[in-house]
Amino acid sequence: MKKLRRNARMLCIQHLYAYLQQQDEALDDVITRSMALNEETEFDEEFFRTLIYKTVSELEHLDERIKKRSRNWDFSRITLMDKIILRQSIAEMMYIEDVPPRVTISEAIELAKEFSTDESHVFVNGMLDRIYKDLVEEGVLMPEIKPAKEG
Question: What is the pLDDT of residues 123-140, one digit of tens each?
Fold first, then answer.
């Protein structure tokens, strides 16, 4: 299941990128067109569809969260790929309940390493950590229980 969801996240990023580049095209049309070109056949389709539709439908709300936490960065200066990874990850934390936030953040860091700039993973990690804390403070998410240290 882990690989299926990782593949779904990667597909989501690619489809979001295509969608944001072709804003005059409906999301369903972008997905249909992109899936025809897709070589990845093993992915969690329900997870993919939930993630992409929630990300697109909540885009303004997700961007507001990013803007609130990007104190030292003007929103327009954040690379498109970093915005996509942040948006998708925040949507995953907020709307997909069976994924622990630490898993979402860890996956986002890996996606940033693979798809964005050399420093993006550090930026994405810091942003998502702050946004996670905001969500806990607001009562949107429950704080994760850290396992007790052995010893």
Answer: 999 999 999 999 999 999
Give me the residue label for tokens 């885009």.
59
pLDDT in tens, 77-92: 999 999 999 999 999 9
Report CA-CA distances (Å) from 6 to 36, 116, 137: 20, 16, 28
Supply the pTM of this predicted model.
Answer: 0.90
CATH of domain 2-137: 1.10.940.10
DSSP symbols for the chain:
-HHHHHHHHHHHHHHHHHHHH-TTS-HHHHHHHHHHH-----S-HHHHHHHHHHHHHTHHHHHHHHHHH-TTS-GGGS-HHHHHHHHHHHHHHHH-TTS-HHHHHHHHHHHHHHHS-TTHHHHHHHHHHHHHHHHHHTTSSPPPPPPPPP-
